[in-house]
Amino acid sequence: MTMASYLTGLIGSGIGPSLSPALHEREADRHALRLLYRTLDIDTLEEGPEAVGELIRAARTLGFDGLNITHPCKQLVIEHLDGLSPEAAALGAVNTVVFRDGRAVGHNTDVTGFAQSFSRGLPGAATDRIVQLGAGGAGAAVAHALLALGADRLTVADRDPARAAALAAALNARFDGRRAHAAAMQELPAHVARADGLVHATPTGMAAHPGLPLPTGLLRPSMWVAEVVYRPLDTELVRLARELGCRVLDGGGMAVFQAADAFRLFTGREPHPELMLDDLADLVAAPSL
Ligand code: NAD
Predict the structure, then answer these.
(1) Which domains does the chain show, CATH number per domain?
(2) What is the C-alpha separation between 201 and 192, in angstroms, rounded?
(3) For the chain, does the N or the C end have fewer beta carbons within 10 angstroms?
(4) What is the pLDDT, as a whole number, of residue 1?
(5) How far is CA 278 from CA 133, 256, 283, in A?
(6) Rounded distance, CA 145 to CA 203, Å?
(7) Which of 23, 59, 67, 74 is an active site residue?
(8) If you measure from the C-alpha of residue 167 to the centroid of ligand 1, how many angstroms do you get, rounded to a whole number?
(9) What pLDDT sits at residue 247?
C-alpha cells in the first residue's frame, strides 16, 4: 500500500528557528503520513517580501499541498490567491494556503487557533470587558476571535496609537454593536481596573524582548490573563499573573491550535492538539532554542 505523502512549508522572514516544521512533521508521524515541511525564508531572496507571489506560483507548480505564511507576507499573499476563507477575508490576512483542485485558497488559523485555545484554556471566562495590549498582526487575529466569541467590549491599546485606532475601527466595521474601542497607553490603568480579562499581544516577554508589558500593580487575582507570546511559555507576565492567582492562558495554545487547524487543512486528517501541546512544550524547552 502506498503511504499518503504531503509537501508543505512556511514562507516568511527570519523563520529559521520556527517550530512549525517539527510540530507538523511529528503530528504526521502519529498518523503514519509522509509529510515534509520546508521553510522558504524570503530573507534569502533579493526581491524581499514581494517574492511571495513568485513563491506561491513555484510551490503550486512543484506540487506543494499547502503553505503557512507569516510576517511580513500575510497581507501581501492575498492578491496571489484564488479564494479566501471567511476569517481570512474579514481580517485581510492569511496564514495558511491550501493548494487543491488547481486553486490556491487562503485561510487564517491564527483566528481559529486563538478561539479554540481560549475556549479550552479559560472555559466560562467573563468577556464583558476585555483589555488587549498590542494591535499588530497577532493582536488583529486575537481581537477578531474575541469579538466572534461574543466579547461585549474590547478595549485595545498599543504604543502606536494609530494602530490601536485602526484595529478598533476595522473591528467595528466587521462586527455589530461598536464593541471595539481604542485607548491611549496612559488610560490603561483605568481600563484594566474594570476589566474581566487582559490579553497581551505585543512581543514583550519573548526571549529577545524580556520584561513586563504593563505595570505589575494593575493585575488583580479576579482577572484572567491571556498571553500570545510562547517562546518562552512562561513569560514574566504569565508567571506574575499565576503568582497573583489569576486564571492564565499561555501563548502555546494559540500556536498549537493554529498549527493543528493548518494540519487538518493540508491533510484532511484530524490532528491531536493535546499531543501537539506536549510537543510544543518539548520544543520550546529544547536547549538549542
Ligand atoms: P507586530 O509587530 O505585528 O505587532 C506588535 C504590536 O505591539 C505593534 O503594534 C507594536 O506597536 C506593539 N507594541 C510593542 N511593544 C509594545 C509595548 N511595550 N506596549 C504597547 N504596545 C507595544 O507583532 P505580532 O506579529 O503581532 O507578534 C506579537 C507577538 O505575538 C510576538 O511575540 C509573536 O511571537 C507572538 N505571536 C504568537 C502567536 C501564537 O500562535 N501564540 C501567533 C502570532 C504571533
Answers:
(1) 5-108+253-285 (3.40.50.10860), 111-250 (3.40.50.720)
(2) 15
(3) N
(4) 60
(5) 28, 10, 9
(6) 19
(7) 74
(8) 13
(9) 98
Could you tell me where the DSSP H helices lie in 92-235? 109-121, 137-148, 161-174, 188-193
pLDDT less than 70: residues of the chain: 1-2, 288-289
Q: Alpha-carbon distance 212 to 186, whole Å?
A: 16
pLDDT at 289: 47
- In 3D, which of 95, 76, 79 has the Cα closest to residue 87? 95
Place of cell 512544550: 281
Name which residue sits closest to atom 18 of ligand 1, judged by CA. Answer: 213
* 74 given a catalytic annotation: yes
Which residues form the pocket of ligand 1, taking CB atoms under 6 Å from any ligand atom? 71, 110, 133-139, 158-160, 163, 201-204, 206, 213, 228-230, 251, 254-255, 258
